C-alpha cells in the first residue's frame, strides 16, 4: 500500500517576479469638489431608475485619521429623491460619535494600461426609505390655504362680522350706523338725523373711508357658516357629489394606508365558514356578510374600523377630554398593527403623543363615515354606539355632523335586523341623502334688559 501511495511532488518553482511590472499608487489630495459616495441600503432595494440628487453642507471633519491619510473635504453629503410615486429616499452620513463615523472610506481606480492606481477618500452614506402620505400632504395644503385666507381678513373686519351675526341688538345697531355713514361718505356728504347735509373735514372723510373699506371686507352669513364648517372635527365632504357614494369615499377616509391593510386571513376564514370573533360588536356582526360579498375595499374598511377602535381603547385619559398615547411597543401590542399603518393613524389623528378633544371627535366622525360606507349609507348606529360606549344622543350628533338624517328604523328594517318593538326603541338609523343636512350655526337672541 505504501508503494501505491502518491508521492509528494517536488516544490513548484515560484513564479519569477517581474520587476518591470510596477503599480504607481497616487493618493488624490483634498479637494473642495465632490467626492465619491459609498452607499449601503439595509433592508431595501433601490430601483435603478430612481435618480438621487446630491446636496452638501459645510462642516468640520474631526476624525483622527492615521498619519499620511487624506481627509475628506469639510462638508456633509446628503442624497435625496422623491421620484418614486409613494416613497421618499434619503441617504445620510453616519452621525458624529457613532462607530461608522470613526471609519475612513476610500475608493480606488486601477488603470491596467498605465499600471496606475488612484485612491481618493469617499463618503459613507446609509440609504433609507419613508412612506409618503398623500392624505397628509393634501391636508397640509388645505390648512395652509385656510391660514392664508384667514390672514387676509383684518382683525377689525372679523370682529365686525361676528358682532353683526351674533352680537346684541345694540351692537348690530351700531354697526348699521357705521355702514350708513360709510355709504354717505361715498357720496361725499354725511347726513344728520334730521336729514340735513353736514359738511365734512378731511379727517372725518378719512375715517369714514376707512370704515367703508372695513365693511366691504366683512364676510356674509354664508362665508361665516363655511368657516365654521371647515373648523369642525369631521372628514371633508364632497359638496359637489351627485350620489351619496361620492360624498365620503375610502380614498378620502383611509388614503394611502389602504395598501397596508391585510385581509387575507378574513377571506380565508369566510371561505371556510369559520366564526371569526373580534372585540368589536360592529365588526363581528358584519364580517361574514362583507367577506362573502367579495368587496375587498369594504373588507379593508372593516379592518380599519377595528384598528381605530382598538387604537382608541388603548389610549390613556388626558386633560380636557383628550387622550394620551401609550409607549409605541405597548400600542403595537394592543392594536396588532404594522409599523407603517400605525404611523399613518398617528399622523392623521394625533398630535405627537397627545390627542385633544378635537382629535378624538375627528377619529369618531371618521368611524361614523366608514360605517356609512360599509352599510351602504344607511347604518344602524347601535353597534358602533356600544363599541364607543356613548349615548344615543351623542352618537346621533356625530352622524348629524356628517350630513345624515336620523330616524327610527322602519318596519322592513326591524324585520331585517330582527328587532322587537322594545329593542327598536334603542336603535337609530343614520341615512346619508342628498342634499346633505349639516347642523346650522345657532344665532343667539339678544338679552332683554
From TrEMBL:
> What are the recorded GO MF terms, alphabetically?
DNA binding
What are the GO cellular component annotations? DNA-directed RNA polymerase complex; nucleolus
InterPro entries given for it? Answer: RNA_pol-assoc_fac_A49-like
**Which terms does the UniProt entry file under GO BP?**
DNA-templated transcription
Question: A single Pfam family, by name?
Answer: RNA_pol_I_A49
Keywords for this entry?
A: DNA-directed RNA polymerase, Nucleus, Transcription
Disordered, as annotated region: 1-22, 46-73
Give the highest taxon in the source lineage: Eukaryota
Cell location? Nucleus, Nucleolus
The family classification in the record reads:
Belongs to the eukaryotic RPA49/POLR1E RNA polymerase subunit family.
Protein name per Swiss-Prot or TrEMBL: DNA-directed RNA polymerase I subunit rpa49
Specify the species: Cryomyces minteri
Amino acid at each position: 500500500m505504501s508503494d501505491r501511495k502518491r508521492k509528494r511532488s517536488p516544490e513548484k518553482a515560484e513564479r519569477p517576479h517581474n520587476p518591470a511590472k510596477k503599480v504607481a499608487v497616487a493618493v488624490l489630495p483634498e479637494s473642495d469638489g465632490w467626492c465619491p459616495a459609498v452607499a449601503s441600503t439595509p433592508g431595501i432595494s433601490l430601483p435603478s431608475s430612481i435618480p438621487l440628487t446630491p446636496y452638501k453642507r459645510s462642516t468640520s471633519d474631526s476624525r483622527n485619521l492615521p498619519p499620511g491619510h487624506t481627509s475628506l473635504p469639510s462638508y456633509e453629503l446628503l442624497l435625496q429623491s422623491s421620484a418614486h410615486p409613494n416613497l421618499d429616499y434619503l441617504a445620510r452620513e453616519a452621525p458624529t460619535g457613532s462607530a461608522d463615523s470613526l471609519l475612513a472610506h476610500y475608493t480606488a481606480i486601477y488603470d491596467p494600461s498605465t499600471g496606475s492606481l488612484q485612491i481618493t477618500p469617499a463618503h459613507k452614506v446609509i440609504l433609507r426609505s419613508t412612506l409618503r402620505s398623500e392624505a397628509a400632504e393634501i391636508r397640509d395644503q388645505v390648512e395652509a390655504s385656510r391660514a392664508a385666507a384667514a390672514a387676509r381678513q383684518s382683525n377689525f373686519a372679523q370682529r365686525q362680522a361676528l358682532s353683526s351675526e351674533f352680537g346684541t341688538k345694540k351692537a348690530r345697531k351700531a354697526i348699521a350706523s357705521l355702514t350708513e355713514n360709510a355709504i354717505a361718505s361715498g357720496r361725499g356728504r354725511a347726513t344728520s338725523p334730521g336729514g340735513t347735509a353736514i359738511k365734512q373735514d378731511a379727517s372725518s372723510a378719512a375715517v369714514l373711508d376707512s370704515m367703508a373699506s372695513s365693511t366691504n371686507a366683512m364676510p356674509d352669513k354664508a362665508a361665516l357658516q363655511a368657516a365654521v364648517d371647515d373648523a369642525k372635527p369631521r372628514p371633508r365632504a364632497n359638496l359637489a357629489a351627485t350620489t351619496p357614494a361620492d360624498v365620503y369615499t375610502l380614498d378620502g377616509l383611509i388614503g394611502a394606508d389602504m395598501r397596508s391593510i391585510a385581509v387575507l386571513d378574513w377571506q380565508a376564514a369566510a371561505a371556510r365558514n369559520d366564526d371569526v370573533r373580534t372585540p368589536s360588536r360592529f365588526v363581528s356582526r358584519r364580517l361574514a356578510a362583507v367577506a362573502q360579498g367579495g368587496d375587498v375595499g369594504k373588507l379593508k374598511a372593516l379592518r380599519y374600523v377595528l384598528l381605530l377602535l382598538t387604537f382608541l381603547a388603548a389610549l390613556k385619559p388626558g386633560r380636557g377630554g383628550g387622550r394620551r398615547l401609550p409607549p409605541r411597543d405597548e400600542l403595537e401590542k394592543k392594536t396588532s398593527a404594522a409599523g407603517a399603518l400605525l404611523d399613518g393613524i398617528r399622523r392623521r389623528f394625533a398630535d405627537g403623543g397627545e390627542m385633544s378633544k378635537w382629535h378624538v371627535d375627528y377619529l369618531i366622525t371618521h368611524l361614523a363615515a366608514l360605517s356609512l360606507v360599509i352599510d351602504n349609507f344607511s347604518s344602524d348606529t347601535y353597534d358602533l354606539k356600544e363599541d364607543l360606549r356613548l349615548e344615543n344622543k351623542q352618537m346621533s350628533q356625530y352622524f348629524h355632523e356628517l350630513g345624515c338624517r336620523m330616524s327610527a328604523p322602519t318596519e322592513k328594517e326591524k324585520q331585517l335586523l330582527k328587532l322587537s318593538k322594545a329593542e327598536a326603541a334603542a336603535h337609530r338609523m343614520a341615512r346619508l341623502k342628498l342634499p346633505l343636512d349639516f347642523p346650522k350655526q345657532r344665532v343667539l337672541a339678544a338679552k332683554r334688559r
